[in-house]
Amino acid sequence: MIRGTKSRRLSSALLVVAALAVALGCAACDNAPGKPGPGPEVIDPSALKDFDTLYAQNCSGCHGANGKGGAALALGDPVYLALVDDATLRDRATNGIPGTMMPAFARSAGGMLTAAQIEIIVSGIRSKWANKGALQGVAPPPYSASEAGNAGRGEGVYGTYCASCHGPGGKGGAKASSIVDGSFLALLTDQELRTLVIVGRPELGAPDWRNNVAGKPMSPQEISDVVAWLAAQRTPFPGQPYPAAATNPAGGSK
Questions:
Q1: Domains of the chain, start order
Q2: DSSP collapsed to 3 states, the chain
Q3: pTM higher than 0.90 for the full model?
Q4: Averaged over 21-25, what is the pLDDT?
């Protein structure tokens, strides 16, 4: 009888020791190297639905915080939003602009965003920053040109509306930098040049099509013509910092 009691006590003690060992082992696992600490769960990127976060992660690097502009034009500019429609915004976000700095963001085009997320960005830009009174009742010129401009006439248009800031020939002046720089022109399509002429860059002090010359807004034809002149200034090899070195008969450069 005594032996049985001792045996049961020993078994109970062993069970307690085993339980403590398990508890200590679990505690050690909680502190194991590489185990994530406590914190919020990681959200599936495709489940993100907040406009501010989507814009900050995908758009602000070029278009600036709160749409105020940066390397690219300000998406929060009410004049720009009065010029473009949602279909244009959606297409730019979905497919990007080939040959420029604007990449495609849609998964269908190799990006990371779902169609629903792009729709959130487009509707958020419109709802947060558009202003129906931005144009003060004046209709903007057409977003796209109905016919090609004339570069010859465009040179005169440039002299009237642009030279006071960008200097003779577009090579830069006291108020603004060169607008015919080969690298600059290589990064923009003709449509982007047209958009810039119409909308300006107010965050950089560049006025829109109504305010280059006081009381004399640019006509749609003048906009098309100056864009044609700018496009004609593109160089065959943009970004080359100097002319190709001439070679002498001996094969060296001079």
A1: 47-129 (1.10.760.10), 151-232 (1.10.760.10)
A2: CHHHHHHHHHHHHHHHHHHHHHHHHHHHHHCCCCCCCCCCCCCCHHHCCCHHHHHHHHCHHHHCHHHCCCCCCCCCCHHHHHHCCHHHHHHHHHHCCCCCCCCCCEHHHCCCECHHHHHHHHHHHHHHHCCCCCCCCCCCCCCCCCCCCCHHHHHHHHHHHCHHHHCHHHCCCCCCCCCCCHHHHHCCCHHHHHHHHHHCEHHHCECCCCCCCCCCCCCHHHHHHHHHHHHHCCCCCCCCCCCCCCECCCCCEC
A3: no
A4: 54
